[in-house]
Write a sequence for this structure.
């Protein structure tokens, strides 16, 4: 399974971006997907996740501003980010896991596959 994240860039505070993560393989619909982010000098943290049954989870810091979705026909998971803040600046990574336990959705060590990140920079 290979993951390719894209869609990062420079945006002003209050703006929006949509990240995409394209996943190789025919069984994408069976994978649970997560978005994590790592700001400069900080540890990687959970942002959002969506299970194969489309149940979702969000970090409190992004709830109400970010929306995760998936298109199983396109083997792609999306992260729509609105009302961006400078503290959202980070490298964003997508991750995949089959059969993740709901209680583990926010743990990066629960995921088996990772893509290379895409940088999001939010200017004030």
């Amino acid at each position: 399974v290979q993951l390719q994240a894209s869609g990062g860039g420079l945006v002003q505070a209050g703006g929006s971006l949509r990240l995409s993560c394209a996943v190789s393989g025919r069984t994408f619909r069976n994978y649970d997907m997560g978005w994590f982010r790592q700001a400069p000098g900080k540890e990687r943290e959970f942002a959002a996740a969506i299970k194969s049954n489309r149940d979702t989870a969000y970090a409190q810091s992004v709830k109400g501003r970010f929306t995760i979705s998936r298109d199983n026909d396109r083997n792609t998971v999306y992260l729509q980010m609105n009302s961006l803040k400078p503290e959202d600046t980070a490298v964003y990574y997508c991750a995949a896991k089959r059969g993740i336990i709901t209680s583990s959705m926010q743990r990066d060590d629960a995921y088996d596959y990772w893509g290379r990140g895409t940088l999001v920079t939010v200017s004030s």
Observations:
- The longest strand covers residues 90-98.
- The chain is about 0% helix and 50% strand.
- The radius of gyration is 13 Å.
